[in-house]
Each structure stands twice: as structure tokens, then as C-alpha cells.
TrEMBL record:
Keywords: Oxidoreductase
Xref: InterPro entries: ADH-like_C (IPR013149), ADH-like_N (IPR013154), GroES-like_sf (IPR011032), NAD(P)-bd_dom_sf (IPR036291), Zn_alcohol_dh (IPR050129)
Ranges for domain Alcohol dehydrogenase-like N-terminal: 24-125
Record flagged with keyword Oxidoreductase: yes
Gene3D superfamilies with a match to the protein in the record: Medium-chain alcohol dehydrogenases, catalytic domain, NAD(P)-binding Rossmann-like Domain
Name of the featured protein: Threonine dehydrogenase
Ranges for domain Alcohol dehydrogenase-like C-terminal: 173-293
Organism this protein belongs to: Patulibacter medicamentivorans
Amino acid sequence: MLAAVFHGQGDARVAPRPVPEPAEGEITVDVDACGVCGSDLHVMGGSVVVPTPLVLGHELSGRVRESRVDGLVPGTPVTVLPLLPCGTCAACRDGRTNHCVDRIDLGLTVDGGFAEVIRVPRARVGETVFVLPAAVSAVAAAVVEPLAVGLRAASLAGAERGDRALVLGCGMIGQAVIAFLRQSGVGTVVAVDVSPERRAQALARGADDACGPDELRELLGGEPVAAAIDCAGHPDTVAAAVRHTGHGGTVVLAGVYGRRVPVTLDAVVGRELRVQGSFAYASEFGHVIEMLARGDIDGEAFVSRHVSLTEAPSILDRSGSSLDDVKVLVRPAR
């Protein structure tokens, strides 16, 4: 089979690899689509360290190839929870599987989905491997993971009906947050991004207003927001989130930071702000699949374009990517 293999900072190459075989409790999946995530770009840039050589990619859909798990037969369409919990530690027993102390991370600690075939350890039906309803396409299933990230961040913001919410960064996660905030009945959603194309997409997704970072103060007109969700992971966006959140409001940090971020703590204390981290998902993963099946959200609408596996290295090193992209899917079968 072919796979896009990461060898070190700035170095990813497509090369033949042996087809993986499943052990007991595992499956292999013929990958239909795998999304390029910001964390993949951070790995490629060297700010996130992983073992090498490694196949990246964790936002995937496909069909079961071989199975050593009851209830999963070859040909079954699936998507996979990429953060594979042990199921026995205190966090897992408490339902906080994203904080498992013995987690296996597809595309970060073991080979991921930028390949024709992926091996999935800890394959448990309805827990780590989800059979796709007929109404959920392979393309939509490949964005379940980032949609679940956005759903958790939007939920942790605690914004209520009539509240004003601010979303900083309108990539895939920001766009998902906007969609879920709009579904929750929040009064006004303001989106911020440097890309005019992404701002336009944010408005189409349900944002009431969208602007560049330099225009935010004027757009808000001095009126604070009840909740600010930073999806950009930049020191300037964190500062803006704190600056524009009103008394008793919530600042959600949902980005990948990888650096020190200066924050004016007097503002946090004086306005009694709640600063809330948001990491991945737990039950949200399954909830998103249900929402896609009901038609509550259109997963395919988040996809900017499709590329072949041979094009994956140029997307990972950004030479073939665009700031306007929301979600790029790698299609190994192409």
C-alpha cells in the first residue's frame, strides 16, 4: 500500500508500506477520506513532537477491510475515534475519555489515516469505531472529528439565548463552533479571521457579523460579549478574547498554542472571567454522527477541496495549501 510518511520537521514523503494486519480486538480500514488538521501542520512544522517515521492523519472514514472484533465485518462503512482510550483508568470510568492516562492517538502515537489502509487498535463498536448510518456519506464522516471538537468548545462556552458570542479564528473548528452556537439559539455571533474568504464562509455558516482582527473593536462598538471562543491558537487572539469578554463571561481556549501566551490576569480577576480549556471530545463524537444522520448539520459543506495521497506532502508543508481552506480531505483511493 501507499502512505504519506512523516520523517521529521518539514519532511513527509509518499512511499510503499506493508499492509497492516489486525491483532485480536483490532480492525483494519480501507481509508476513503482523511482530513488535514491543524495539529498535522504543527507536527510538520516541528512544534508538536511525534515518533518517526509516522503516518499522520486522524480525521478519517472508510470501510472495514479485516476484522478481529465481533460486530464489525468487512465492507462496513465506519468512522473512527482517533483518541483511543484504555477504558479502565479513572478518567475513562468517569466518562472523560479525552483525558485517558493510557490513550493511543491515531496519527500521533501510532500510524494514522494518510494511507490506503489503517490499523485500528482498541476497536470497540459504538465506542471507538462507529458504523455509519446510511444518511452519512464518507465525506461527511471524515469531518465528524473536527465537528466534535467544535461542539465541545461551543458547549463549554455556556452562551445562552440572547447572548452575544465571539469566535476568533474561522478555520474548521471556528466554523463548527459558529454552526453549533447558531443552533443553540445564541443571540449574536461575531466571527474574526484574517481571511476574507473564511469570513464570508462564517457568515454563510450563521455568523451575524465578521471582520478582520483590526476591525473588531469598532465592530463591537465597546459592547462586551458574554463568551469568546479562541480557535486560532495565537497570543493576539487570546488577548482579544479576554479584552472583549464582559463581567462574569467565559473565555474558551480551543486552539493549539505551542508557545507562551501573555494574558492580563487583572482583567480576568477584575471581571471575574472564567477561562475554560477545551480539549477534543468525549460523548460529542457520537452526538455529531447522530446530528449528521438527522440532517441537523451538513458535514460535506465544510470541505474546501479533495486531494490525492500523492498531494498530501504539499498540503502538510503548506506549499500546496491556502489560507482560505477550511477543510482539505486526502482521498487515498484517487
